[in-house]
């Protein structure tokens, strides 16, 4: 029983217990986080009620929830907006990623997701996406009331509709005085299109400098921002 007289031999036990407890706690937190990530996202009771109030499909909101934890904000129909919408505010890098991934999927489900604010009109700098229940991919132009003193909302809608038919133009975002567009089909002869764009929105030259530069840019980077 000699070892009872030498307790100093076992002084390492207490520090070892502390280390074990520390790493056990860290490992438990890791497992909890891993388990949380593995859980499929769900809509809250409030979000389900909101969806029912504006007759949005739960599955559509659930698809959005898989890509963002941002709050879903109901935007009711009013005198300026004929149909309700859901607004989602998110960061500069998140918004384009979500839009790129989900836009086509949502369109096939009868919904359109688009930029309603690029952070220019907000104090927090967040981008705003809005979700509308419509099968018209250009409806956000009417929803936003895009127009100028000299060009009506319907004229803008019809012009973009023409570009959609001939050049594969898709709507990315819409505001009161601006549009974001993208040409998804290869553009070969772009000089005539560039002139049409300049005639329609002369301010485009503030960004592109000249007709020739715009024509070249349309081939290399078929994204278009129009502002009146």
What is the topology?
Blueprint: H1 13-38, H2 45-53, H3 58-65, E1 72-75, E2 85-90, H4 94-108, E3 111-117, E4 127-133, H5 139-144, H6 153-167, E5 169-174, E6 178-183, H7 191-200, H8 205-208, H9 211-220, E7 223-227
Antiparallel strand pairs: 1-2, 2-4, 3-4, 5-6, 6-7
Helix pairs in contact: 7-9
Transmembrane segments: 20-38
Organism: Costertonia aggregata
InterPro entries: DUF4253 (IPR025349)
Number of strands: 7
Order of helices and strands: HHHEEHEEHHEEHHHE
Mean pLDDT: 86
Strand content: 15-25%
Write down the oligomeric state: single chain
Helix proportion: 40-55%
Distance between the termini: 94 Å
Organism: Costertonia aggregata
Keywords: Membrane, Transmembrane, Transmembrane helix
Domain DUF4253: 135-228
InterPro entries: DUF4253 (IPR025349)
Would you kindly provide a written description of the structure presented here, covering whatever features stand out?
It is a single chain. This protein is α+β, with helices and mostly antiparallel strands and 228 residues long. The chain folds into two domains: 42-135, no CATH class; 137-228, no CATH class. The chain is 45% helix and 18% strand. It is built from nine helices and seven strands. The protein has a four-stranded antiparallel β-sheet with strand order 1-2-4-3. The longest helix has 26 residues, at 13-38.
